[in-house]
Amino acid sequence: MADDQALVWAALCGIVGTAQDLAVVAAVDTGTTAVEAARAQHADVVLMDVRMPDMDGIEATRLICAPASGPVPRVLILTTFDLDEYVYGALRAGASGFLLKDTPPTDLIAAVRVIAAGDALLAPGITRRLITEFTARQAPLPTPALRDLAGVTTRERQVLILVAEGLSNAEIAHRLHITTGTAKTHVGHLLTKFQVRDRIQLVILAHRTGLVPGQPSLSGDAPESR
Questions:
Q1: Helices (H), ranges, the chain
Q2: pLDDT tens, residue by residue, 31-42
Q3: Which domains does the chain have, with CATH numbers?
Q4: pTM for the whole thing?
């Protein structure tokens, strides 16, 4: 974890330490040391502050999430600020999650597990308006994502739409009357089919391809009936 305030990262270490399945492998106070520690310790998840000396958390996230020959750590941004630009910057840099520091400890631990499992999340205060604005600012989607949209099944489209609405796998399962495992499998198939990293990019894809109401289809064709 990386935070320039010793009291904060000490508290975070204490919170994470209460979970038997989690362990803190390094605690640092600058962006540069965060990048070095993430690589040296082969961290699964990095808790990253935004405002730090030497290198901010957004740039550190970009470097940590850059393509590499081995596994790439996932980054969960933790900050006291919920400014839109921080979220935009974190998502562009490759972060898999964004939480405010007033998040309850149990929710923080749950978030680390979600990120470690390969999912992604945004704090409840990050609204659909923000996601919509972010998608409008993004560069064009990869060609495979647009090309393969027509090939998704009806069930996969249903799952993709619910992912875009911010539902968890359990909530998707309840909504569609399927098991949580089946919902997770559908999400995994979508990640593979569209060649995207995580759920956040699925949200972006769903908005930008017109599957979510109010968003124009980038392909030029109206989305198929749901």
A1: 6-17, 31-41, 57-64, 84-93, 105-116, 128-137, 143-148, 154-164, 169-176, 180-194, 199-208
A2: 899 999 998 898
A3: 6-126 (3.40.50.2300), 139-208 (1.10.10.10)
A4: 0.66
